[in-house]
Design brief:
Layout (H helix, E strand, L loop, with lengths): L20 E5 L5 E8 L3 H12 L9 H8 L21 E4 L11
């Protein structure tokens, strides 16, 4: 997924190797949903819809809060390093900060 205000400065095809879910942390505790990788899955989609119906905790009332509460284990996952042989990884990974920079870093 990609917010409309993102600008790619180079090819990012390696993100297609990034497992079932990958996102970048904007601070030590919260990941950002301006760019994230989510492998298409009807099981995950149906579960997310069910969680919305059941009133899953959503701290900010927006997509970022819901997705952060749905994938709370991301903080403990390894950093994504794309395999040089092009194989797709399994699992969940943190994306390096370079995938979600904003003006505050300059």
């Amino acid at each position: 997924m990609l917010d409309a205000d993102n600008l790619f400065l180079q090819n990012t095809d390696e993100l297609f190797q990034c497992g079932q879910f990958c996102a970048t942390f904007i601070n030590p505790c919260v990941f950002h949903t301006g760019l994230f990788v989510l492998q298409p899955s009807t099981v995950v989609f149906n579960d997310m819809v069910n969680e919305l119906r059941n009133g899953r905790e959503n701290p900010d009332g927006a997509d970022q809060g819901f997705i952060a509460s749905y994938f709370p284990e991301l903080l403990d996952k390894p950093l994504f390093h794309p395999p040089s042989n092009g194989t797709k990884l399994e699992g969940t990974y943190r994306l390096p900060l370079g995938y979600q920079m904003d003006a505050s870093y300059y």
